[in-house]
């Protein structure tokens, strides 16, 4: 591994900061949605707002050299007019200064889903004005933090928050509407290009990318029908983000397909030209699992998401497009996420072949229920998971893929969207019931040794085959 390889963990503002109404922070769409629906929320979360120093110190003590976190828009910008909240800006200066004090490279996400409610009330991502408002927010971030940040990303996972918010309906604003999903998707990709333009025009130091929830697509067999289903799935899951951000173009066959039933006239030439011109410097890939598909056969579109942690509940069928299936030979988590490290290796290779851009693996981890009352959580499953996924990265690097960093999700236990805090991902346990006490898990110590060994500690193996066995 290159000496500059970045090893660290990731978090997101809403999921860890807490302090939801402190120091003039405005409510985000998640605050309002979870409060109104009486669901477990991130009001306090891991209280990172007050404990960031301890958290960042523990990263450094764990041998990590980087921290990926996001900036909260409603903490930094007070209103639709774009007024800056100096207290919010000061908080992120404290975080950045603490990172530098401990030799931790900050890797900054501009937007990780916490849209200010004052914009959600105006239609959120369905409202074109939000693109310009986001651009303003991004400029405020570049202006204030530009000197302290080398790695920026415009958005975390457009696929996930747009599809869940407007198509599946399990995230705010809870809609199930294809046309609106298309508006939202387009606005986010356009807003991302506006931020890249602002970054280039401002001549800020560093680089800018985008983070995608990457699910490389596999098919159940080699038939032509399966290949077609795979292309639909790839367009739905990956291409509208990665092609658009990296190549500057929405997939033409996706737009053609959608235009058979839906309006695409909102895609304006002058905006598409901005998307074409302002592509990213690198891509961030969050990898949890692949998407395994078979051709669609019958029935209506069905999109069911498992938030209960009771196995066997999720379903993705898109009428006339594809059906997602489970591999009977794979292991799945209680939340129906397949454990499939080979998918990361294949996906990295594919992304490299298509885009030829440097890649950071910006999230990777496994969510489980854990008893954190013990002195040290013995999370061997997480160690095995990380070992196998880092091995997959190393295999991809051996095949020539330019990979620059690895971020465990998450640096420490935090709030998991709609799943509450019982779905734990952290390298450090947070005892939410007991005064937010932090205790490193076994995986934290393993990660430290692994980094110190420059990944020589990784048990290497080659993956074989690519079909269901
Ligand atoms: C990604 C998000 C993260 C994080 C992670 C785990 O999609 O970027 O914010 O939450 O997934 O997902 P979950 O918490 O839903 O299990």
TrEMBL record:
InterPro entries, alphabetized: GH, GH_1_N_CS, Glyco_hydro_1, Glyco_hydro_1_AS
Entry's EC annotation: 3.2.1.21
Keywords: Glycosidase, Hydrolase
Residues annotated as catalytic: 363
Enzyme class: hydrolase
Protein family per UniProt: Belongs to the glycosyl hydrolase 1 family.
Matching PANTHER family: GLYCOSYL HYDROLASE, LP05116P
Protein name in UniProt: beta-glucosidase
């Amino acid at each position: 591994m290159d000496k500059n390889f970045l090893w660290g963990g990731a978090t997101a503002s809403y999921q860890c900061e807490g302090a939801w109404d402190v120091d003039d922070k405005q409510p985000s769409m998640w605050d309002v949605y979870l409060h109104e629906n009486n669901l477990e929320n991130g009001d306090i979360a891991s209280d990172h707002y007050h404990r960031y120093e301890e958290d960042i110190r523990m990263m450094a003590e764990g041998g990590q050299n980087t921290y990926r976190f996001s900036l909260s828009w409603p903490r930094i910008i007070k209103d639709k007019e774009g007024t800056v909240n100096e207290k919010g800006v000061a908080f992120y200066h404290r975080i950045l200064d603490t990172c530098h004090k401990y030799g931790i490279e900050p890797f900054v996400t501009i937007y990780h889903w916490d849209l200010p409610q004052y914009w959600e009330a105006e239609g959120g991502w369905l409202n074109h004005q939000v693109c310009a408002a986001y651009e303003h927010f991004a400029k405020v971030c570049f202006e204030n933090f530009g000197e302290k940040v080398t790695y920026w990303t415009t958005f975390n996972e457009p696929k996930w928050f747009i599809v869940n918010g407007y198509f599946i309906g399990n995230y705010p604003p809870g809609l199930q509407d294809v046309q609106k999903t298309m508006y939202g998707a387009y606005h986010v990709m356009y807003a991302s290009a506006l931020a890249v333009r602002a970054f280039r025009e401002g001549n800020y130091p560093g680089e800018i990318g985008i983070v995608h929830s990457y699910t490389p697509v596999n098919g159940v067999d080699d038939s032509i029908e399966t290949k077609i289903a795979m292309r639909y799935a790839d367009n739905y899951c990956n291409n509208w983000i990665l092609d658009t951000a990296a190549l500057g173009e929405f997939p033409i066959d996706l737009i053609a397909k959608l235009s058979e039933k839906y309006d695409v006239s909102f895609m304006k030439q002058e905006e598409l030209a901005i998307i074409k011109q302002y592509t990213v410097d690198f891509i961030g890939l969050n990898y949890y699992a692949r998407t395994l598909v078979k051709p669609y056969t019958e029935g209506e579109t069905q999109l069911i998401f498992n938030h209960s942690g009771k196995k066997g509940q999720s379903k993705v069928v898109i009428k006339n497009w594809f059906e997602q299936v489970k591999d009977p030979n794979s292991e799945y988590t209680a939340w129906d996420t397949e454990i499939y490290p080979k998918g990361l290796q294949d996906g990295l290779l594919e992304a490299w072949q298509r885009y030829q851009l440097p890649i950071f693996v910006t999230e990777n981890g496994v969510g489980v229920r854990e008893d954190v009352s013990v002195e040290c959580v013995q999370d061997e499953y997480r160690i095995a998971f990380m070992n196998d996924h880092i091995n997959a990265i190393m295999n991809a690097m051996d095949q020539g893929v330019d990979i620059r960093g690895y971020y465990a999700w998450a640096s420490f236990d935090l709030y998991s969207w709609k799943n509450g805090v019982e779905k734990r991902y952290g390298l450090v346990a947070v005892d939410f019931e007991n005064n937010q006490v932090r205790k490193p898990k076994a995986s934290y110590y393993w990660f430290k040794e692994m980094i110190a060994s420059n990944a020589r500690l990784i048990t290497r193996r080659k993956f074989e085959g690519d079909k269901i066995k």
